[in-house]
Amino acid sequence: MASKEALLTYIQQFLEERGVILSLAELEKYNFVAEGALDSFEILTLTMGIETHFSLPVAPELLLDERNGVVGNLVTALMEQA
């Protein structure tokens, strides 16, 4: 089972690889959709990476909910569906 910290670390590393450098405190409030940090392909890549790395299925509904554009909200939603 994935922990909140592990998911946050994974997402932080994913964003850093794409030039977005944030502290963990900033990360939870970061809206990667509103900031335009990830295009649709990158969001799909992140989703597939989470599914593969954590064996955690990501429901399509999670990605349709605008609130989940904020990293902390996405992690919370992932933890709730696990």
UniProtKB/TrEMBL annotation:
<dbReference type="InterPro" id="IPR036736">
    <property type="entry name" value="ACP-like_sf"/>
</dbReference>
<protein>
    <recommendedName>
        <fullName>Carrier domain-containing protein</fullName>
    </recommendedName>
</protein>
